[in-house]
Amino acid sequence: MFGLTTLAAGKLPLGNMLFIIISFLVLMYILKLVAYGPLTKVLDERADKISNDIDGAETARQEAEELSAQRQSELANTRQEATKVVADAKISAQKQSDSLIAVASQRATSISQQAQTDAEKLKEDAIYNAKNDVASLSVAIASKLMQKELSLNDQQALIDAYISDLETK
Q1: Are 166 and 133 in contact (CB under 8 A)?
Q2: Which of the four pLDDT bands, split at 50, 70 and 90, describes residue 54?
């Protein structure tokens, strides 16, 4: 009944078995082409993308650390430069202040000396004018006295007249 396609020992039809095996192999080949191939390709691409993303993240992290270290270094250099600029400005201001104080002191000394010189000149002029006035007054009194002898009241009147003449000049 089964003929050649029947196995003697197990009584399974050989034709059905061959058909099932060939069908299974063809199905596996079709699955490999249609499903496993693209699926494996997608999974490999995804694994590569994840690997590249991890490598990219590591590279970005290293670059970020390098940039951070560079910024820290630049910040330290900027702070040093700022400190130097402030110190130079303080030194310059101190020098300028000292220079202005020296000039002002020198000018004050010069003005003081000039004032003393002017005061001495005014004093000498006042003494000279007083001597001339006293001399001319003495000469005038003496000439008047010679012209007449004066009583005490006449002398007082004469002195008052000369003083009033001096005040009007």
Answers
A1: yes
A2: very high
